[in-house]
Amino acid sequence: MYAFQLHQPKSLSEVAALLADPDAQPLAGGQSLVAAMKLRLASPGSLVDLGGIPELRGIRREGDAILIGAMTRHAEVAASEEVRQAIPALAYLAGDIGDRQVRNMGTIGGSLANNDPAACYPAAVLALGATIRTSSREIAADDFFLGMYETALTHDEIISAVSFPIPRRAAYMKFINPASRFALVGVFVSQDTAGAVRVAVTGCAGCAFRATELEQALSADFSPEAAKSVRIAPGGLNSDLHASAEYRAHLIPVLAGRAVARALE
Ligand SMILES: Cc1cc2nc3c(=O)[nH]c(=O)nc-3n(C[C@H](O)[C@H](O)[C@H](O)COP(=O)(O)OP(=O)(O)OC[C@H]3O[C@@H](n4cnc5c(N)ncnc54)[C@H](O)[C@@H]3O)c2cc1C
Q1: What whole-number distance in Å separates Cα of residue 155 and Cα of residue 157?
Q2: What is the pLDDT of residue 2?
Q3: pLDDT at residue 228 above 90?
Q4: What is d(CA 251, CA 160) in angstroms, rounded to the nearest whole number?
Q5: Where are the domains of the chain?
Q6: Which fold has domain 5-165?
Q7: Mutation probe of ligand 1 site: the residue of 92, 97, 103, 139 with most atoms within 8 A of C-beta
Q8: What pLDDT sits at residue 186?
Q9: Strand, helix or coil at 204?
Q10: Interval between CA 32 and ligand 1 midpoint (Å)
């Protein structure tokens, strides 16, 4: 590790002032950022620890949505009665992230800002049509994820919370990479209270994306059979030492079918 400054602000205005420095970067649970620094893939001059800002934590119901503060840990989302009642698929997803240590340190804001191609939360955010609240605006899920490790956030903008509309039904299925427990392929299926279906896939491209072929099939017939009958073209999907593009393309409708079956339970 090399030398850097650590700031521990106590208010959002202090955070904003510190992030005006182009060499400063927010720190959440450090689960990706500290590892990247150790590997010399990131070298911020200063870190702005968001852990001392109470407004960034917590889970509450807000009308027909669940609002989760950016600094809320995965373990807290997994254990939350509010989330388990309203969006059990989200609690399940959080409880299946990484290992116990990662779940006790990693945060929803850090996960979304990091936008790892194999992260789980981006699939939930896209499929549930969530809204990302930042220090300066609200960003619709469809406009947030731009590419590998790239989001619509500007340098000095932090995620403050995520608002998830409560769906009629939803489920997430992940085929794990057994080494990291990240998604080799993950599929989140959701049907909103008006019946509209959204399906998002993670682990298969630069970042999570919506699978329109599956959305069309499931809008006509919300059944595991309809999901499994869809054929996904492998062109453009990731191919690496863990899985070929063809294998990932095969897994997407398989997992979507399992997710629909879970959602219908
Ligand atoms: C072994 C291992 C296994 C994992 N398995 C999974 C998995 O199965 N599924 C999965 O989804 N994830 C997985 N993760 C990732 C984990 O979920 C973390 O959430 C993720 O690494 C981000 O960590 P963090 O919240 O500590 O953020 P940090 O590492 O502190 O920050 C990550 C990035 O986000 C920025 N940032 C942090 N908070 C904010 C904010 N509020 N606003 C703006 N920018 C911000 C930071 O500047 C940095 O660029 C795994 C991680 C590890 C180490």
Answers
A1: 6
A2: 76
A3: yes
A4: 34
A5: 5-165, 169-263
A6: 3.30.465
A7: 97
A8: 98
A9: coil
A10: 5
204 alpha carbon – ligand 1 mean position (Å): 18
Would you place residue 121 in the very low, low, confident or very high pLDDT band (cuts 50, 70, 90)?
A: very high
Pocket test for ligand 1, best of 4, 31, 115, 202 (most atoms within 8 A of CB): 31
Structure tokens at 11: 């208010």
Residue matched to tokens 């990302």: 132
Q: Is the pTM of this model over 0.90?
A: yes
Report whether pLDDT(161) > 80: yes
What is the band of 136 on the pLDDT scale with cuts at 50, 70, 90? very high
Task: List Cβ neighbours of 240 (8 Å cut-off, separation of 6 or more).
Answer: none
Q: Are 91 and 77 in contact (CB under 8 A)?
A: yes
| Protein residue closest via CA to atom 50 of ligand 1 | 98
CA of 12 to the centre of ligand 1 (A): 20
d(CA 226, CA 261): 11
- Tell me the fold of 169-263: Enolase-like; domain 1 (3.30.390)
DSSP state of 229: T
pLDDT score for 1:
66
